[in-house]
Amino acid sequence: TGGKDRRSGLILTIPLCLEQTSMDELSVTLDYLLSIPSEKCKARGFTVIVDGRKSQWNVVKTVVLMLQNVVPAEVSLVCVVKPDEFWDKKVTHFCFWKEKDRLGFEVILVSANKLTRYIEPCQLTEDFGGTLTYDHMDWLNKRLVFEKFTKESTSLLDELALINNGSDKGTQQERERSIDLNFLPSVDPETVLQTGHELLSELQQRRFNGSDGGVSWSPMDDELLAQPQVMKLLDSLREQYTRYQEVCRQRSKRTQLEEIQQKVMQVVNWLEGPGSEQLRTQWGIGDSIRASQALQQKHEEIESQHSEWFAVYVELNQQIAALLNAGDEEDLVELKALQQQLSDVCYRQASQLEFRQNLLQAALEFHSVAQDLSQQLDGLLGMLCVDVAPADGASIQQTLKLLEEKLKSVDLGLQGLREKGQSLLDQISNQASWAYGKDVTIENKENVDHIQGVMEDMQLRKQRCEDMVDVRRLKMLQMVQLFKCEEDAAQAVEWLSELLDALLKTHIRLGDDAQETKVLLEKHRKFVDVAQSTYDYGRQLLQATVVLCQSLRCTSRSSGDTLPRLNRVWKQFTVTSEERVHRLETAVAFHSTAEKILQECPEQPEAFNDMDQFDEIEAVGKSLLDRLTVPVVYPDGSEQYFGSPSDMASAAEHIREKMKLVSLKKQQLRQPEATTPES
Fold this sequence. Notes:
The chain is mainly alpha-helical. The protein contains 17 helices and six strands. The strands form two sheets. It has a four-stranded parallel sheet. It has a two-stranded antiparallel ribbon with strand order 5-6.
């Protein structure tokens, strides 16, 4: 209980009960309890209190005698607590004090209330009228925890020492073999350490805290012994566990390094083996868009396989970087070498994949441009093979413009093909840099020949189309000229018709006098010159049309009726012009004679001798008036009048007035002649 006698010896209490007590179990229990105190405590001896108040005398006697065999040297006093007035007669037959020499210790029968004569009340529990605080279940639980901790920690210390000592001795392989055999302890060191700390905390708390009654509690001697044992075990455990953690860390680092090394070699071996072999077998660029796309799809599959290994590379690189940041100098050189080797291989393989992808993309673009150019050439050739049958010059111009645009588009397409082809050839020429010693001259020659063959073929097709375009351009320009000539000839006919119409409708005046009529006659001759030029121009255009039709080997659709129309209008114009000239000349003669007669004086005697001129002018005037009423008759039998009837009536009226003046003049001249005979 932690109580002590007056000699500072520990008090051992043996409570007996009414039930049968096993001496063997009691002996084992006593051996265990006596093993707890230190040797120093044992040297001060024990005072044993045998509580027989609830037991029989023979049991008590057996226990006392057993103490002789179990702890004879350590027991200095045995106090048998007897029941009140129960054993008085029986004990007379056996006196313990007489057996002191044989037993080796003194035995006293005492009542519970008189036990304080031998032991201080503060060292006795409440069961014996003392004040010592004691909780047997608390002591038992704590003792079990202590025993468990001691057993586990001792076993754990042995295991950790074996592991740690094994890692410090022998070769690297021996250390690893030793660590492998005993690498994991049978119990968790963290759990054992936590249990020890909790136990030590509880022991220290009980040592320094007072009891509920406020009286300072004297720690049990076994607890005083337990605390240093726990502290010592904890210190040893921490030391060994720290070493064990370092061993584990070194082992983990070595294992991690070996795993990294193994994975690095797996990545390197695959990239330099199957990965590189896949790229070696892929050298073609395809001969069409579909073939290039198929090669691209195959390359994407290769890239997908490489991506898995590149992902491993990224993970390994991160692990190596983490180990390098840890700063273990002994592994820095090896880690850097692994990192450099891994990076070199991965970057080289990634560069090859990128180069191959760029090459296939360039090939696809080349074939795409070649296909577009081929389609453009086909469209241009189809356009050239169709015979030109335009409706007019504008449609020919539009067709010619479309032809030029297509040819220009072909030129740009061929230029783009050359650029793409040259770029692809440049990339192919650099392919040997990652061929790993493989001779790719034959494969590259096939690719180069294919590219150059495509460009040469496109150049020849384009040249043939250009030649055909030149022929078609010349033909279309001639057709444009033909249509232009036909249009201009038709325009000449229109102009000539307009001149004829103007001649008939506006050229109707005959003049008021001879001078004005002469001016009109001069203007008419100039007007006829313009019409003649128009007619000649139309004839020339129609002649050019005939020549162009012969050159184009085609029949003009308009020149066939343009020439008859031109000749018909010209003949009508000629007849009308001649009639106009005849009328103007007649008018000039009429006005000249009339003006001459009207200007002569009556005193002039010769006027009377020339009366025939009056008859002549009268005849001319009547003839002129008759012509004004007669239509122009064309060769085809059609008729056409000059001006409107009112215009002709006005002109005729003017002539009649002048004829009246001439007639009046004639009468004036005749009167003097009549009066002369009379006179």
